[in-house]
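So, is this right?
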Amino acid sequence: MSNLLMPVQPLALQVLDVARAAGDLVVRSDVMAVLVIAGSAAAWLLAGWVRVRAAAPGVSHRRCLLAGADLVACLPRSAPTRAWAWTDPAAVGRGGLAPPELAAAASGVTLALLVPASVLAAGYLVLTGHLPARASAGLVAATTLVVLAGLCVATRRVARVPGRNRWLAVRGPHLTAAAVLGEVVVAMTTTAAAWALTHTEGVAVSLLEVGLAGVVARVVTLASVPAAGVGLADVVFAATLAGVGLSAGASIATVAVWRLGLALAWLAALAGRRPRARSGLSSGVSLGGGSRAGLGGHSEGPLSLPSEPTGSAAGEWLHRAAFKVIGTLPAAVARRLRMGVFQALFSLSEDPWRYDGLPYERRKRQMLVASLPPARAGSGIIVELGCADGHNLQAIAEAYPSSRVVGLDISPVAVAAARRRTGGQPQVRVEQSDARTAALVLNGVGVDSIDVLIVAEMLYYLGGPARVNAELAGLAPMLRPSGVLVLVHGAGDAERLHPAAVVALGCASVERVVVEDVDRPFVVEEAHARQLPV
């Protein structure tokens, strides 16, 4: 037996020497190590905070920090970062504020971002020869197989969580932007930890390569299977750091700082969840209940989709800016990109904008129907451009049963949903078309003129005023001399885009009503086609 232990003893001594060197390096780093650990904890908290803020912008900052820990922290038992753990409904019962469907949506988005990023990072490190010198091909292959198996299991189980697609349909783009920001911040703190420790050693390393090693470690953490736990991610991280030039002690110390920051963030979140005295507000209010009290942070129940339209100045700007960029591309390319976006949204949910669920949307729809001129809509042809899943078409057909109602949308999935919704209304027809080809499609279904044209909440998808003008100009000859254009958009979009639409369609504005809705102001504008000179 003693002979068998002899080879183990030198290895154990080496491990102890490396651990001692790592501890000594942290101690010698002194204040810098403390700052890096605090910064790492702040980064983990920020990564969680930004995800919850993106999912439910009305939540208080405190609740964002507390619930955010459920989305990014990783402990061996609860492991909220590991997507498969969130298939257990009891996860919320362990004190989690992020419901399984939100956690699954956030984990799915993070996986979708980190998997290709880690493949590129690992490929770069391999091509540049930054594998540990003593690593065998068999060990690398075995680790890769374990990670791939974990990714397959995680992805499959995340996809099976009920309600995940609803979160993705409503808040998917926001969760994606939040995941990018959060992972960048975490990677930056990882590089800061490596820089601080190697600075103490007096050794220069490539911070880019350290950051890439951190990305690889994050995806291994997300893909970790129960048998491996987070240990596999830490081993891979330390080995990759050694491969990019860090000493064994610095590699272990960097991983330790990474985990200490995460543990500190988790402990801070746990401390914040301790029961607090409440000032007369019920603790059972959730964001989905429609009560404004639920936005104040007093409720400790799981988060849910809010019952009012949500958004932020930064989010709205990014949303509009993205479609402005698309609008600058050639028309055919822009059309395909828009179609791809809406195909994805309507594939996740038939009602991605929650026309049924938001009282704001119902009020806006009622205002739209009430603004239609009876003289023109009563027995004429009503066309809605960008009809989505047909909520407006259904309401218009009910209000004007003797009219012919035609809906156009760029997404085939949305067209199919609108046809199902209006299936019991024979006077309604729904066709696939974008704004540029609308006139051609209408002629193909026997519509050669329009009495009322409705454009509601879709102009900003076309881009800026110039692109709105170019996209809508082809519909101008379709309006009857006495035709009516009805525009409905949020106040900011109406101010910027309504004038371009009115001009493009050869109309003149006759009435503009600003509705100061309790949730978000919007504008209903009526314009009449200009009479051609005889």
Q: What stands out?
A: The two ends are 111 Å apart (CA to CA). The chain has 20 helices and seven strands. The mean pLDDT is 80. Strands lie at 381-385, 404-409, 428-432, 450-456, 479-490, 507-515, 522-529.
